């Protein structure tokens, strides 16, 4: 631990904003792992329960259950059902309602994902800035001390290498997490589309049977 602290201190002042970015990245990754879990976004038991009430034509109860569950899938269901109750009962109207709700819900899913992309871009740049400042120190030392003080040169080079390495060590896993969550978002969006299609079909089928 003491060795790590020494390395951190040798990295210079830019290590502190890099550390801050690293902590932020970890926090955002943990939060998105929870928020984008399938259990959180698509609570299967609740969706099945809502579907049962729709089949029984108990739409008001289905809306209540969906709203109380408060997931992206059940929010979509509740919104479409509310549109249905307000008289938007054709397939085209219900599809439009589903698209409107999805446009409102999907940004909530993205949450801190874009922030992870920003951290992955900024961290190596800060590391590179540390490299530049370290090399400036090296050349300043060369101009003042000449080649007679190698310890001054090694300190500047060390700072340059440490900040670059630290920046990359933050950026690489953060970028991997960013693309993982992007892939997961694409999957969730496709599942929402399938859910909307099934819901519209179920509602219009119920309407036809009720005639």
Automatic annotation (TrEMBL):
Residues 80-193 form the MotA/TolQ/ExbB proton channel domain. It comes from the Bacteria. GO terms for biological process: protein import. It is found in: Cell membrane; Membrane. One of its GO terms (cellular component) is plasma membrane. Pfam families: MotA_ExbB. Keywords: Cell membrane, Membrane, Protein transport, Transmembrane, Transmembrane helix, Transport. It is a multi-pass membrane protein. The chain crosses the membrane at residues 14-34, 112-136, 156-181. Belongs to the exbB/tolQ family. This is Biopolymer transport protein ExbB. It comes from Persephonella hydrogeniphila.
């Amino acid at each position: 631990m003491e060795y790590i602290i020494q390395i951190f201190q040798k990295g210079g002042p830019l290590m502190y904003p890099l550390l801050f970015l690293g902590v932020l990245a970890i926090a955002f990754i943990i939060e998105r792992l929870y928020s984008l879990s399938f259990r959180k976004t698509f609570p299967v038991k609740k969706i099945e329960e809502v579907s049962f009430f729709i089949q029984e034509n108990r739409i008001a109860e289905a809306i209540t259950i969906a709203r109380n569950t408060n997931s992206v899938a059940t929010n979509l269901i509740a919104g479409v059902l509310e549109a249905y109750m307000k008289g938007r009962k054709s397939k085209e109207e219900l599809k439009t309602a589903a698209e409107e709700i999805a446009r409102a819900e999907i940004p909530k899913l993205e949450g801190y994902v874009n922030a992870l992309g920003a951290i992955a871009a900024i961290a190596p740049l800060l590391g590179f800035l540390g490299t530049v400042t370290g090399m400036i120190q090296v050349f300043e030392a060369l101009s003042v001390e000449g080649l007679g003080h190698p310890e001054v040169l090694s300190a500047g080079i060390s700072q340059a290498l440490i900040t670059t390495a630290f920046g990359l060590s933050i950026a690489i896993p953060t970028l991997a997490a960013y693309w993982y969550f992007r892939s997961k978002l694409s999957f969730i969006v496709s599942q929402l589309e399938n859910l909307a299609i099934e819901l519209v079909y179920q509602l219009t089928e119920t309407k036809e049977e009720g005639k």
